[in-house]
Design goal:
The complex is a heterodimer of chains A (381) and B (152). With 381 residues, chain A is α/β, with parallel strands linked by helices. Helix content of chain A is 38%, strand content 18%. Chain A has a domain at 4-113 and 206-223: Peroxisomal Thiolase, Chain A, domain 1. Chain A has helices at residues 22-37, 53-56, 65-68, 83-96, 115-120, 128-131, 136-151, 155-169, 184-188, 217-223, 250-263, 268-271, 282-291, 300-305, 322-325, 332-345, and strands at 4-11, 46-50, 75-78, 101-109, 192-194, 197-198, 207-216, 228-237, 274-276, 358-365, 371-378. In chain A, the strands form 2 sheets. Chain A has a 9-stranded mixed β-sheet. A two-stranded antiparallel ribbon of chain A has the order 5-6. The longest helix of chain A has 16 residues, at 22-37. Chain A is globular. Chain B is mainly beta. Chain B has 2 domains: 20-71, no CATH class; 72-152, OB fold (Dihydrolipoamide Acetyltransferase, E2P), CATH 2.40.50.140. Helices cover 7% and strands 38% of the residues of chain B. In chain B, strands 6-5-4-7-8 form a 5-stranded antiparallel β-sheet, with no helix packed on it. In chain B, strand 1 (37-41) and strand 2 form a beta hairpin. Chain B is globular, with a radius of gyration of 20 Å. Classes of the chains: A alpha/beta (381), B mainly beta (152). The interface between A and B is large, with 38 and 43 residues.
């Protein structure tokens, strides 16, 4: 099988209420990723963008993006949902041998339209939407309470996830929500939406974009001497909300198993050096530890309590601040891939973890993380 | 670059969608008027869907009208949240005057969980595992308008 490497990347400084147009934002991030790879627009032979028609407020959300992404007169396509799905697609195009260099771009400007209302529109229109009260935050709150009572987890313990990630975000120049002196008390006194979920326990509404350049092994060797290899991939879709066990992230478990198998990872705890995950709500990060096989079900809080998942811990999770630090919806999972690659290349200025050779990146989409993507990335040995 | 923000311009997008509800959902909606909750039990694996579905998501068997079963309207609260805000329909959250309880309810005889308002209870008194029952509206405000309350 061919090997595929990440050879360049860029992301915006995520923020709310960006002055730049969507097109300028995408143009700049794509240009920066190509500069980072040191290749020209002409060398890219397939362009895959990721956005959502509802979030961008236009049908065919990629309209006007072909210019911004340098896709005119090229193989161009769009993957909806999270940017990690576009990477999966680009990876396959290169594996198939039809393309050698792919550009992946993902973005959302959450200030255009509230993503929580878009999530509401993903519910069954004939039943759940008729009831009216349910939305992605309410569903996550129900899940958080179920998880808390099944495994004896307190609100303070959930708030500690937010504190860990927000303290990390404060050191990441691209992060959106930076509160360098955030405390558990501050998280627990932030605005209550759906109990126990408060403002600082959910991801912020961010405007932002991210771009990635992928290349076949042959091309990658010519482009860079510091490639980051895609060693394993897994993607899995769970049942609709009504028919799912909310106490676990079942589709993430399966996606992780597939990615581990492809990458030849037997024990993620000892073989992986770093994890970048898309926790849209603080409690999800504990459930993600469990789904990734880092601890037994219900024991996520112990990893956190012992400081193992802190930036300087044994198994650092989200040294970038994760989705709680910035959530430009469709770009959020792609940002996780970029953050993991950055750590492998030793380019995470100000928040670099030492000795990262192999890392995991995770993207999700849908209410209560219905769909999940897992990537295992590795540097040159 | 000036310090002032570039202007933002917005306009509403109004669309009315119309879907066929399908045969089983039509029976479900019509039965609500007669204060009955219908579910569909998969003839192949036995998983019981409420509201009914015409195709089993677990084993992909087809479900038809002969697979409809009537539920008692009683169930168990398997989870809940207390809502302090709601979406206002144009993309903002507005504060609720009084907090409302949204329950995750497993109805007797059903395998799916439904997410419905839980009423006639002080949010502080709500407990996971509580027995609940359907509370019909005197006047339904839409095709699917009912709630639950604790069994007393």
């Amino acid at each position: 099988m061919r090997r595929v490497a990440i050879v360049g990347y860029a992301q915006t400084q995520h923020q709310f209420d960006m002055d730049k147009t969507r097109e300028d934002m995408v143009f700049e991030v794509v240009k920066e990723a190509l500069l980072d790879a040191g290749i020209s627009r002409e060398e890219v032979d397939t362009v895959i963008t990721s956005s959502s028609d509802f979030l961008d407020g236009r049908t065919i959300s990629s309209v006007f993006l072909s210019m911004a992404a340098g896709a005119y007169l090229k193989d161009e396509s769009k993957a909806e949902e999270d940017g990690t799905s576009a990477v999966w697609y680009a990876f396959m195009k290169i594996l198939a041998g039809t393309h050698d260099v792919a550009l992946v771009e993902a973005h959302t400007q959450a200030s255009t339209f509230n993503p929580h209302l878009v999530s509401f529109y993903t519910l069954d229109p004939l039943f759940d939407r008729q009831v009216g009260l349910l939305n992605d935050i309410a569903a996550a709150a129900i899940q958080a309470r179920m998880y808390m009572s099944a495994y004896g987890v307190s609100e303070e313990e959930i708030a500690r996830v937010a504190v860990k990630n927000l303290l990390n975000a404060a050191k990441n120049p691209n992060a959106h929500r930076k509160i360098p002196d955030v405390t558990v008390e501050e998280v627990l006194s932030s605005k209550l939406y759906y109990h126990p979920i408060r403002e600082l326990m959910m991801s912020p509404l961010s405007d932002g974009a991210c771009a990635l350049v992928l290349a076949s092994e042959e091309k990658a060797r010519k482009i860079t001497d510091n490639p980051v290899w895609i060693e394993g991939v897994g993607c899995c879709q769970d049942f609709y909300l009504r028919d799912r066990d909310l106490l676990k992230l079942g589709s993430l478990e399966k996606a992780a198993r597939d990615a581990y198998e492809m990458a030849g990872v037997r024990d993620p705890l000892t073989e992986l050096d770093l994890f970048e995950v898309s926790e849209k709500f603080a409690h999800e990060e504990l459930m993600i530890y469990e789904a990734l096989g880092l601890c037994r079900r219900g024991k996520g809080k112990i990893l956190l309590e012992k400081g193992l998942t802190e930036k300087d811990g044994e198994i650092p999770v989200n040294p970038s601040g994760g989705a709680l630090g910035a959530d430009p919806v469709c770009a959020t999972g792609l940002v996780r891939i970029v953050e993991a690659a950055k750590q492998i290349r030793g380019e995470a200025d100000g928040y670099q973890v030492s000795g990262v050779r192999k890392a995991l990146a995770h993207g999700q989409f849908g209410i209560c993380a219905q769909k999940n993507w897992v990537f295992i990335l590795g540097g040159e040995r | 670059m000036s310090e002032e923000k570039v202007i933002r311009y917005g306009f509403p997008f109004v669309a009315r969608f119309e879907w066929s509800v399908g045969f089983l959902m039509e029976r479900f909606i019509k039965s609500l008027v007669d204060k009955k909750i219908l579910a569909a039990k998969c003839p192949s694996c036995g998983y019981t869907y409420v509201p009914p579905r015409s195709r089993c998501g677990k084993c992909y068997a087809q479900l038809g009208e002969t697979n409809l079963v009537e539920l008692s309207g009683k169930g168990k609260l398997v989870g809940y949240t207390i809502a302090h805000v709601e979406l206002d329909g144009s993309g903002n959250f507005r504060d609720l005057e009084k907090p409302r309880v949204i329950g995750a309810i497993k109805l007797e005889g059903a395998d799916s969980t439904i997410f419905m308002p839980l009423e006639e209870v002080d949010p502080k008194e709500v407990k996971e595992g509580m027995e609940v029952e359907v509370k019909w509206r005197d006047e339904m405000k839409g095709p699917v308008d009912f709630a639950f309350r604790p069994v007393r």
